[in-house]
Amino acid sequence: MLEQSNPETITKIETDSPNRFTYGFMALGACVEGFNTVIRSVITIDATHLKVKTLGVLLVSVCKDGNEMIYPLAFGFINYECTKSRTWFLKRLREVILYPEHMMIVSD
């Protein structure tokens, strides 16, 4: 429904064999369009652990606009933080960036 009501929005969901949630990705179309046209090509990615029944990790990728304000680009929801899940998120992020060869990504 998010993709239907927001043009150019990209969402991906991945599940494991018993059809349980593993990874999720969301990039709102307006944010992607703005990033690909006028925003600086430096992306910062950070993660925070969710303190709910299912646990998991929220990944957030942001950059700065021309006024030095934080500009959201994409969000990821993963079951736990590891190389495989971060790689999955980065691959989805690369799909929304028009010129990935000109990007700089900063992460912890």
Automatic annotation (TrEMBL):
Residues 42-108 form the MULE transposase domain. This is MULE transposase domain-containing protein. InterPro entries: MULE_transposase_dom. It comes from the Eukaryota.
